[in-house]
Amino acid sequence: MHSSLRRTTVAASLGLLFSGGVALAEDVVTFRAAYLPTANYLTTVRTTGILEKELAKVGAKVEFIGPLDPFSAYNTVTSGSADASSTGTGYFVNLSAQKSDWVAFALEKYSGNSQGIVAAPGSGVTSLKDLYGKKVGIDGEGATGDYILNLAFKEAGLDVSQVEKVTLDTTSFASAFASGQVAAIASYDQNLANAISTEGAKVLVTADQLPTANWSIHIVSREFAEKHREALKAVYDGLVQEAARAQANPALIPDAYREFGASEGLAKVVAGFDTPRILPLDATAVADLNRLGTQYVEFGFIEKAPDIADYVVDLSK
Length: 317
Description:
Layout: E1 8-10, E2 18-19, E3 22-23, E4 27-34, H1 41-44, H2 50-56, E5 61-65, H3 70-78, E6 84-88, H4 89-97, E7 102-109, E8 115-119, E9 135-138, H5 144-155, E10 164-167, H6 173-179, E11 184-188, H7 189-196, E12 202-206, E13 216-221, H8 222-227, H9 229-248, H10 252-259, H11 264-270, E14 277-279, H12 283-298
Parallel strand pairs: 4-5, 9-10, 9-11
Antiparallel strand pairs: 1-4, 2-3, 6-13, 7-13, 7-14, 8-11, 8-12
Helix pairs in contact: 2-9, 4-12, 7-11, 10-11
């Protein structure tokens, strides 16, 4: 994956001028963000003008591309059509284990109460052990739901191999849960909120009750990070401002979900989730993500944990 992910645009107001065959126009760095239809801060900041203002200070600009599902966002960056996106720390650990060209530049950390396991109405499930021999919907092998399921069972001293995992795509979680196709789901954000808001559902555990290291993280191509650190620092500073805006007005997060079609019932549940903070990828964050890598090896998601220090840029320095 060594595709070039750098893009520069020529300022239209300058035009392309030549003197003796030498171009006099200046290149303008453009930070291209492939954003997701979730309320992470790289998504919510796009309507505020914050990134535009911060990047203008260093002679750069921003372009938002999306909303894209995580898979499409990943492909958009790896194809060279964008520079950055957002994901979960677990997926980031997976990418790092594959020696990817992504680096993390901002950690979006929260308590974990927006991730968990919820039993479906009519399933008869009231505890984790009741899931033995039953189907549990997850978002993919080694993804957030799978991680939460493994971690919860480990902490409870239970055998996760006694559960039948069923991979569901984003559009099928709600129907599978409501129709009884699965006895429970292990998921996060909208899917978790939808399950919690379903009459008769039972929350079995949320990640804030577990030693989780699974949060959201903002990642960028290594080439962009190395060539345009000043612009990336401006983006980081903008995300810090956006997090402060959310801390002052937590309603902006459920409002963002409403923008993407969430019902009032779902938005009400989301409003009860912890409001994230933006933190740098400093020594503390690296230690947390290395711990996550160790868990990923233990759960069989990856063979060897990467040294996360090789895949981050600390913009607090």
